[in-house]
Amino acid sequence: MHLQFIRLTTEWDQPEIYRLMTDVWVVGDMEGYGRFRDALINMVEAKAAKTLNELYGLDHGMYVLLMPPPADLSEPKIRVIERARFVDEEDKMQMVVRASRAGYRQLADLVQRAMDEGKDDINWHERVNGVSMPGVYVDRPGAVAINLRGPLSVFSRERAEGYDAIVFDRHPHSMPNYVGRYEGEAIDYFNPQRVDELLGLN
Question: Which residues fall within 8 angstroms of residue 199, CB to CB, at 6 or more apart?
Answer without folding.
Answer: 67, 79, 81, 96, 98
